[in-house]
Amino acid sequence: MAFTVQAIADWVGGIIEGDASRSVVAAKPLNENPNENEITVILSEKNLAQLENTAAGVVMAPKSLVLNPEILQKKTLIRVDDALMAFVTIVQKMHVKPVQKMTGIHPSAIIHPTARLGKNVAIGPFVSIGEGCEIGDDATLMHGVYLGAHCQLGNQVWLGPNVSVYDGSILGHRVIIHGNSVIGADGFGYRNLKGMHTKIPQVGNVVIGDDVEIGACVTVDRATFGSTRIGRGTKIDNHCQIAHNCQLGEHNIFAGHVGLAGSVTTGDYVVLAGQVGVADHSKIGARTMIGAKSGVHSEVPPDQVLLGSPPRPVREELQILATLEKLPKMRAQLRKILKKLGLEEE
């Protein structure tokens, strides 16, 4: 189906530069070689050379981006404040077919008679809901979801296939948890007694704030005592581990394979890149960003941008990494100097 540039601009509140009547049949990113009758998107100056070589007839661009006047002669532009989000909207309207929302309660679901369900709750096949659970309005539990006893779910919660939520867990409003994640399993707590690793009972729970989204295959362990907490608005990528007693602030962002040991505390708006590891009882201050594969072993102040293990300011760590690459050459030079001085290398 074809759309005019004017219609597309109306979807996103864009400003048109060029032919508003031009026809568009598809939306493609630059790396997919869009054609003359397709729309693409440019996000920054880094993509300017790529844009000049594309055949795309229509381009979504930020209002602030300066483009070569020759491009404007060949292409129609739609200027917006946020080009990425606008392009996502266009792709959804042109290419994404709406999925029919699941409704009702599947006959194979097992629901304890003491559980209380809100309005318009959708329960998929083979869902198990335990004793005393409370589920808010408009919640959706996809097939295979398990809720232990006395769990509380807020309004508009969405749990993906095969999510397991252990006893006593509390999920706020609009929480999203993707497939195969486990909330509230026992924390990894043991004592060595008489030569044996003896399990410390984990009697706490997990409390997840409003508007939290948790990716696939994430584990969040219950506290030994009290609650493991995930603050409002926090987003956690796939394959992350949040250990027992962790206290996460609001609006944190964790990329894939982040691992937090027990009793880690983070402030608000903390960002942890992929594969960051945090040792037990560490504290990370608000608004701090820690780069990929870093290892945190102690307290980190707020408002830092760090990298490495232990984490250092990014510029300092990059200088260290650059120096490490030169070590073989520096060692060879040192050996020559020692030889000339008649000294033996130890």
Write the layout of secondary structure elements.
Elements: E1 3-4, H1 5-12, E2 15-17, E3 23-24, E4 26-27, E5 38-41, H2 48-52, E6 58-62, H3 69-74, E7 76-80, H4 83-95, E8 110-111, E9 116-117, E10 122-123, E11 128-129, E12 134-135, E13 140-141, E14 146-147, E15 152-153, E16 158-159, E17 164-165, E18 170-171, E19 176-177, E20 182-185, E21 190-193, E22 196-199, E23 205-208, E24 213-214, E25 219-221, E26 227-230, E27 235-236, E28 241-242, E29 247-248, E30 253-254, E31 259-260, E32 265-266, E33 271-272, E34 277-278, E35 283-284, E36 289-290, E37 295-296, E38 305-307, E39 312-313, H5 314-340
Parallel strand pairs: 4-5, 5-6, 6-7, 8-11, 9-12, 10-13, 11-14, 12-15, 13-16, 14-17, 15-18, 16-19, 17-20, 18-23, 19-24, 20-25, 23-26, 24-27, 25-28, 26-29, 27-30, 28-31, 30-33, 31-34, 32-35, 33-36, 34-37, 36-38
Antiparallel strand pairs: 1-3, 2-7, 21-22, 38-39
Category from helices, strands and their pairing: alpha/beta
Query: What is the CATH T-level topology of the largest domain?
Result: UDP N-Acetylglucosamine Acyltransferase, domain 1
Strand order of the largest sheet: 10-13-16-19-24-27-30-33-36-38-39
The Rg value, from CA coordinates, equals 27 Å
User: Span between N and C termini?
Assistant: 76 Å
How large a portion of the residues is in β-strands, by DSSP E? Answer: 25-35%
Domain tally: 3
- The appropriate CATH architecture of the largest domain is 3 Solenoid
